[in-house]
Design goal:
CATH topology of the largest domain: Rossmann fold
Structural class: alpha/beta
CATH architecture of the largest domain: 3-Layer(aba) Sandwich
Number of strands: 14
Helix content: 10-25%
CATH class of the largest domain: Alpha Beta
Number of domains: 2
Strand content: 15-25%
Distance between the termini: 36 Å
Shape: elongated
Order of helices and strands: EEEEEEEEEHEEHEHHEHEH
Largest sheet: 6 strands, mixed
Number of helices: 6
Bound molecules: guanosine-5'-triphosphate, magnesium ion
Length: about 325
């Protein structure tokens, strides 16, 4: 199961109370104040972790709390700090304040951290209040409460390349060929229900992060099919690969298929429609596929990459071209 949104409440730990104590020991007359300070409360921290692929884990519980600080002890002992609560979230998680909706942080890289709620300070023990005039203070502070906060988490996948196209265009097959990812492949539409990311080796020295997305259909930008729910994941890809099935078994005429996906991207956002997008004829294996590809290329008026995942045709050329745009070596 995939989950790309959730709301959670977090509460940091309370600071421990400071202690009031006096030194009472044999041979130490009038030992003076001796109460230690309380430990600080633990923080609630979000960390971007590549082992998390969705917000399923984070959204399992509605509220997370960190540990309270321990009270100060005699002999000026400071209480233990409360334990932090660390919640791993997938890379690409955007954190928004629930009430006001503003973005607090975009956890876009592995290891990015955000202290969501800071633990309360521990109270000072009576030792801290001693001075020349007040040598035996009977006061200590109580620990401060920890911060509390309600946030909305939303995952927007961060991949360099996003695969778009009609269902059955061969997107998942392509990803499984060029990366170690193992997305489900089948000859029925909407096989892919959850976005999946794979890392493809390009040439000897470079890799590209590729996101396989559920197929788009007409009306996707208005929410038809799996629609808009996944288009947002495309937003963060630098380059799109638009796969069009040009084989005889394609459910739609390649030119019509290409146009309808372009329309959905434009309807969704003009900025997305302007993103570099390489046009790819997939399943290009037979004579008739070749003809269909030529027709598509003429109609689209842009270079067409012809690929076949089972035979490996055109895969490295396509990745190399995509890599050059992502790395800024070639303009689109
Ligand atoms: N002959 C041939 N068949 C292919 C090729 N690529 C994919 N297929 C087949 O086409 C069907 C659909 O492939 P998928 O990779 O699941 O297509 P998809 O675009 O991911 O589809 P959705 O997840 O439903 O959007 C499967 O039966 C694949 O085996 C190809 O290059 N050549
Ligand atoms: Mg698929």
């Amino acid at each position: 199961m995939f989950r790309d949104e959730c709301q959670i409440e977090v509460a940091a730990g309370k600071g421990g109370d400071g202690m009031i104590a006096f030194r009472r020991e044999a041979f130490v007359p009038r030992g003076g104040p001796w109460g230690g300070s309380g430990g600080d409360g633990g923080d609630v921290i979000l960390v971007a972790d590549s082992h998390e692929s969705s917000l399923l884990h984070a959204g399992r519980q509605p509220r997370y709390t960190a540990g309270n600080g321990q009270p100060g002890g005699p002999a000026n002992r400071t209480g233990h700090r409360g334990e932090d609560f660390i919640l791993p979230v997938p890379i690409g998680t955007q954190v928004r304040d629930k009430q006001r909706g503003h973005l607090l942080r975009d956890l876009a890289k592995e290891g990015d951290r955000l202290i969501l709620a800071k633990g309360g300070d521990g109270g000072r023990g009576n030792t801290h209040f001693a001075n020349a005039v007040r040598q035996a203070p009977r006061i200590a502070e109580t620990g401060r409460p920890g911060e509390e906060r309600a946030v909305h988490l939303e995952l927007k996948i961060v991949a360099e390349i996003g695969l778009v196209g009609l269902p059955n265009a061969g997107k998942s097959t392509f990803l499984s060929r060029v990366s170690a990812a193992t997305p489900k492949v089948a000859d029925y539409p909407f096989t892919t229900l959850d976005p999946q990311v794979g890392i493809a080796q390009v040439g000897d020295y470079d890799t590209l992060c590729i996101a396989d997305l559920p197929g788009l259909i007409e009306g996707a930008s208005e929410g038809v099919g799996l629609g808009i729910k996944f288009l947002k994941h495309v937003e963060r890809c630098q380059v799109l690969l638009h796969l069009v099935d040009v084989s005889e078994s394609a459910s739609e005429d390649p030119v019509a298929a290409w146009k309808s996906i372009r329309r959905e991207l434009e309807n969704y956002s003009s900025e997305l429609a302007a993103r570099p997008c390489l046009l790819v004829a997939s399943k290009c294996e037979t004579e008739s596929a070749e003809l269909a590809a030529q027709e598509l290329e003429d109609e689209a008026g842009q270079a067409l990459f012809r690929i076949s995942s089972p035979t490996g045709r055109g895969l490295s050329e396509l990745l190399t071209a995509a890599r050059k745009i992502v790395r800024g070596e070639e303009s689109y």
